[in-house]
Amino acid sequence: MSDIGWVAAGGIVGAVGRFLVSRWTARYATASFPAATLFINCVGSLIIGFFLVWTTERVLTDPHWRLLVAIGFCGAFTTYSSYAFETLKMYEQGAVELAILNILGNNIAALGAVILGAVIARKI
Fold it and tell me: How many domains does the chain have?
């Protein structure tokens, strides 16, 4: 399979995963805050943090796995563009506190998730 095929395969799984997780999260969250986007960004950050550290420091893997997981899956699964748009809409609608919470949550929590993924990968 070509490099594009590996990225595409991961992207299909990531996009479908994002759709399913968004629908699942929406059942339990309020419509006034984009909890699904925050959750997906943190999960994707955890996955990429774990995977890239694990496959560069712990185990030897075929480079195609990085294309599949880091670029394809995580690229399609995480939702930075949605996060940016949702933050803008909250701000424009006067929900400045929620917009700030969204910025802090997506940046601090997602960075924390990358760090957690790296720590887990280094411990196993």
Answer: 1
Contact criterion met (CB below 8 Å) for 84 and 107: no
Question: Residue 67 in contact with residue 89, Cβ under 8 Å?
Answer: no
Q: How many CB atoms lie within 10 A of CB 87?
A: 20
Q: Which residue has the tokens 């955890």?
A: 46
The full 3-state SS of the chain, as one line of letters, equals: CCHHHHHHHHHHHHHHHHHHHHHHHHCCCCCCCCHHHHHHHHHHHHHHHHHHHHHHHHCCCCCHHHHHHHHHHHHHHCCHHHHHHHHHHHHHCCCHHHHHHHHHHHHHHHHHHHHHHHHHHHHC
Q: How far is CA 74 from CA 9, 25, 120, 121, in A?
A: 12, 18, 18, 17
User: Which residues span the domain enclosing 85?
Assistant: 3-123
10-56 pLDDT per residue, tens: 999 999 999 999 999 988 888 889 899 999 999 999 999 999 999 98
